[in-house]
């Protein structure tokens, strides 16, 4: 199992410092202050922010900002825009890049601790984790018909506010080869949720 990653979005810090140095209102940088991203397994947004993957567009500055309508899978982002939470600013996250996104090795059926870093905590309904179906096509943007729509792990929060560093331990699905894990953090007191896509490999 890969080790947990400790991450502080350095670009966000530099951006805020630059804005302050120019004497501009910090309100103009407010989107960079919200909200959360997955660190284990690392999400596409995190990989972009850490320059592991390049040509990602503005998500490199805001890995925590993949926020879109909640209600997945019945509602939420449209098919093909799920990794970007339906927000065109983050569209590079939906680009499959020919199936070449870096993938973390996982052991099927093993215990695994999923982790998030939050930059703004919210009253929370749940954290849910979905995985792609066997035979899905990693060279195509993620759609609902490529996912097992029953989460393999769900952690209910009942409206409580989670800590800024979160860990959820569960059992990985029994899969083989390359897959994607979709983590959905559903907010209780707004109409939105946060979507994070992680590329993983369960081996032969």
From TrEMBL:
- Entry keywords, A to Z: Signal
Q: Which Gene3D superfamilies match?
A: chitin-binding protein cbp21
* Endpoints of the signal sequence: 1-34
- Listed InterPro entries: Cellulose/chitin-bd_N (IPR004302), GlcNAc_Chitin_IntDeg (IPR051024), Ig_E-set (IPR014756), TAT_signal (IPR006311)
Question: What are the Chitin-binding type-4 domain coordinates in residue numbering?
Answer: 35-200
Could you tell me which Pfam families the record lists for this protein? LPMO_10
Q: Which residues cross the membrane?
A: none
Report what the protein is called: Chitin-binding protein
Source organism of the structure: Actinomadura harenae
Upper lineage = Bacteria, Bacillati, Actinomycetota, Actinomycetes, Streptosporangiales
């Amino acid at each position: 199992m890969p080790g947990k990653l400790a991450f502080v979005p350095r670009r966000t810090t530099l951006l805020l410092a630059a804005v302050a140095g120019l004497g501009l209102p910090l309100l103009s940088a407010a989107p960079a202050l919200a909200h959360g991203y997955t660190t284990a397994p690392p999400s596409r947004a995190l990989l972009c922010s850490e320059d592991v993957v390049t040509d990602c567009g503005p998500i490199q500055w805001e890995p925590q900002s993949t926020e879109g309508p909640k209600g997945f899978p019945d509602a939420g982002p449209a098919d093909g825009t799920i990794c970007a939470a339906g927000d065109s600013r983050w569209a590079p996250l939906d680009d499959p890049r020919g199936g070449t996104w870096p993938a973390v090795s996982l052991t099927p059926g093993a215990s695994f601790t999923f982790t998030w870093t939050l930059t703004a905590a919210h009253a929370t309904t749940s954290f849910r984790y979905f995985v792609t179906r066997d035979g899905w096509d990693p060279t195509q943007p993620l759609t609902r018909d490529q996912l097992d729509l029953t989460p393999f792990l769900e952690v209910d929060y009942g409206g409580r506010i989670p800590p800024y560093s979160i860990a959820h331990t569960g059992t990985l699905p029994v899969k083989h080869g390359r897959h994607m894990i979709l983590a959905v953090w559903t907010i209780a007191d707004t109409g939105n949720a946060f979507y994070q896509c992680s590329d993983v490999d369960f081996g032969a």
